Amino acid sequence: MKNQKKLQAVLFDVDGTLADTEQDGHRVAFNAAFQQFNLDWNWDIDLYGKLLEITGGKERIRYFMENFVPSELNKNDLTNWIASLHKAKTKYFESLMETGNIPLRPGVARLIQELRQRKIKFAIATTTTMENVTSLLKSTLGEESIDWFDVIGAGDIVPSKKPAPDIYHWVLNQLDLPAQECIAIEDSENGLKSARAALLPTLITVSGYTHQQRFDEAVAVLSDLGEPSKPLTQIQGVTITQGWVDYEILNNLINH
Fold first, then answer.
1. Is 176 a catalytic residue?
2. DSSP-assigned states of every residue in 144-202
3. Which of 13, 20, 150, 224 is the catalytic position?
4. Nearest to 198 by CA among 179, 222, 221, 181
5. Is the pLDDT of residue 231 over 90?
6. Hey, how many other C-beta atoms are within 10 angstroms of the C-beta on 149?
7. Among 6, 239, 14, residue whose Cα is nearest residue 126
8. Share of the chain above pLDDT 90, in %
9. Where are the annotated coiled coils located (predicted)?
10. How is the chain split into domains, by residue range?
């Protein structure tokens, strides 16, 4: 019998994983920024779902311009213009978060509190900006919650965004832990590819935009993290023996 590993840290993605921020958060904020910049662009729900295949907000804007409005690419200093547009979008997103209308997904707050009580490390590994992470955490878990996380890896601190493994390598390096003793929690195929390329066992909780993606390399795929009062639904992978994910379940998953 092989030696059992003990889970040392949980690495959370943000958008779609901690909260369903995409459709009614980021998408709405992008459209508000387009209006501010007098652009007649509108990212409807279906289009935004397709654009989510491109990770990173600035990268998503550039991809949209190249494929949908190529005539706009001749702007002076295009890179800085995109950065300004994205900065405006981030401000709208922060305002949306402050309203408190986008809650954490089922089981997220419960699991975080359990990890805190057990003194298990937990971190964030995301391609979204630090401002977005901060506004989401403050609006859902409170002002002090930023300090609960041992490491927050966000935004442009690494050269390549997901599905490249850079952000996970960076976070693991900061934690000084081997990937095999940690688990990533993701919601998308790009996130799964990123985590697996960093050799992290990965649990998927599907979101509205990702439920039809392929997750063959995940240890398990679930509807969400579940609550005792509202059990999760298992989709594939290692069988979850109860209706919610806790430390013991995660510890079991890294040993499969």
1. no
2. GGGGG-SEEE-TTSSSS-TTSSHHHHHHHHHHT--GGGEEEEESSHHHHHHHHHTT--E
3. 13
4. 179
5. yes
6. 16
7. 14
8. 95
9. none
10. 9-20+103-254, 25-99
Query: Token digits for 11?
Result: 């690495």
Q: Tell me which residue of 82, 59, 242, 41 sits closest to 159, measured CA to CA.
A: 59
Let me know if 24 is a catalytic residue: no
Give the domain 25-99 fold: DNA polymerase; domain 1 (1.10.150)
DSSP characters for 2-49?
PPPP---EEEE--BTTTB--IIIIIHHHHHHHHHHTT------HHHHH
H or E element at residue 206: none
Q: Beta partners for 104?
A: 19
User: Is the CATH code 3.40.50.2300 the one for domain 9-20+103-254?
Assistant: no
Tell me which DSSP letter residue 227 carries. Answer: B
d(CA 200, CA 100) in angstroms, rounded, equals 32
Helix crossing, 189-197 with 166-175: angle to 10°? 50
What is the C-alpha separation between 182 and 202, in angstroms, rounded? 9
Q: Residue 101's pLDDT is what?
A: 84
User: pLDDT of 175-212, one tens digit each?
Assistant: 999 999 999 999 999 999 999 999 999 999 999 999 99
With bands split at pLDDT 50, 70 and 90, how would you rate the model's confidence at 2? Answer: low
